[in-house]
Each structure stands twice: as structure tokens, then as C-alpha cells.
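sorry for the late reply, my laptop died twice this morning and i had to redo everyting from scratch. anyway the thing you sent over, i finally got around to it. pasting the sequence first so we're on the same page, its 278 residues, then the predicted structure underneath. double check i copied it right bc i was rushing
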Amino acid sequence: MSDDIDSSHQDNKSWLDKLTNAFSSDPETREELLEVLHEAHNNKIIDSEALEIIEGALEVSEQQVRDIMIPRSQMVAIEYDQTPEEFLPVVIESGHSRFPVVGESHDDIRGVLLAKELLPLLLKDSDEFDMADLVRPATIIPESKRLNVLLKEFREQRYHMAMVVDEYGTVSGLVTIEDVLEEIVGEIEDETDEEEVAQIRPQENGSFLVEALTPIEEFNEHFDASLDEEEYDTIGGIVMQAFGRLPSEGEQVQVDGFSFSVVKGDGRRIHLLELAAS
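ok and here's the structure:
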């Protein structure tokens, strides 16, 4: 029994030593903080998912609304004078939960319409419909608003979508609370999103496109491979480890006899890889 207690004590001490060593010096810059976090990850104090969330939160504090907003050209808006017969097909096809309501142009913002508030139309004559009864006031924000400030306002003021205007007061797009959260935790999908494409897709030239989030277990099964499933969960993680840094698009690396090229990535992670034909 005493041996078990001593072993447990040593394990705890080892973990505490790792934690102490990872934060042995106070970081003075963002870059130094990231180095500490990556060291903590390498020492298995925090996992990959926690590291990505922390990095996302740090990036959000430096980003502005203009960096992530849905541009005006991609906005799905409803015209204030439209009848339910005219705008319901748009509501159904888009699958959105909130819509900006506009007047004669997108710069004439009349408010925001929640899709769920259209349900009573099923129980009464649409001739009784009056947009003024359903439209809610729109929140207008500048392109320069910082995302961390906006997220706080979303939470405190309990609204989920804001219209974005440029320095001249012209509508340049919109942003939702989901857009901000996805910058922190990654893409959030729901049952209305289109079905995901296959994570491993063969190409005509014999190569394969491989989504970086493909589980290593799935990759091993598909290619009868034996990549290490203990150290990392996804193929993107093991490729990143092989590079030893965040690679640029087009860079190549060998992993246990497999040749990977980075097809798509951003400042935080790899998104898509190409596996060369064998």
C-alpha cells in the first residue's frame, strides 16, 4: 500500500513540476505567452483543444468586426414591404434564424426579424400580417469595434446579431454572436448546415485530399497505416508535429512514408492536406 501511495505522490509531484516549469517565468509579450502555452501543451498540461481555444481567445482580443463580418453582398435580407408569400421561400432556403429587414436599400435598416416569430403565420390568415408587429430594433456597430468588446455586449445586452457600418454610415455587412464564438472554438455546425463532405477524398491523379480534422484512427483504417494514435488525435496534429511549426500552403512533409502537402490553412491551423499517390 505504501508503495502505491509513494507512486501516486511522485506522479502528482511530476505533474506539479511540469506546471511550475511551464510557467517558471512571467511572459511579457503575446509571443512569450504563446511560447509558454505551447510548452504547457508539449508537457501535456493542456490538450490540443484547450490550446486552440486559448489561442482563439487571444486572437479575438486583437481582431475587429471587419475581420470576420458577413459582407453586404452575402447578406440575406428581407424587404420591409414584402408579403409572407414573397419572403418565406428566402427564409426557408437560407435556414437562418435572424434576418435584417431593409427598406428601399440595404442602407435603410428597419430592424431584425426572428424566423421563429413567423410560426404564428401557420395558424392565421397571412392577410393579417404586419411586419411592424414583428420587427425588432437593429443594433448598429462600426467596423472597427473589437471582437472581445462585441462579445461582451452580445452577452450583457442579450442580442445575437448586429449590423455593421463603415465610417460613412453605409452598411458594410452583419455579424452574429456565432461568428465571434467560431473564432474562439472553431466552426459551429447545427442540423441546418449542409452535410459534411467525406474527410478523405480520392483524386483523379491518384492522390487524396484529407481534411486535417480526420481522426488518425480513421486514416489508419482507410490506408492500412499505423500512425501513432496516442500522441495526437487528428492527422492535422501529427502533420503539424512533423513540421515542428505552422506550415505555409504548398509545403510538404514526410510522415512514416506518407507524403503530405498543405493545401489550405490559416494563421492558426491546417485545414486541408493532399496525400501524394503511392
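Residues 9 and 146 are 46 Å apart (CA to CA).
thats about all i looked at so far, will dig more tmrw
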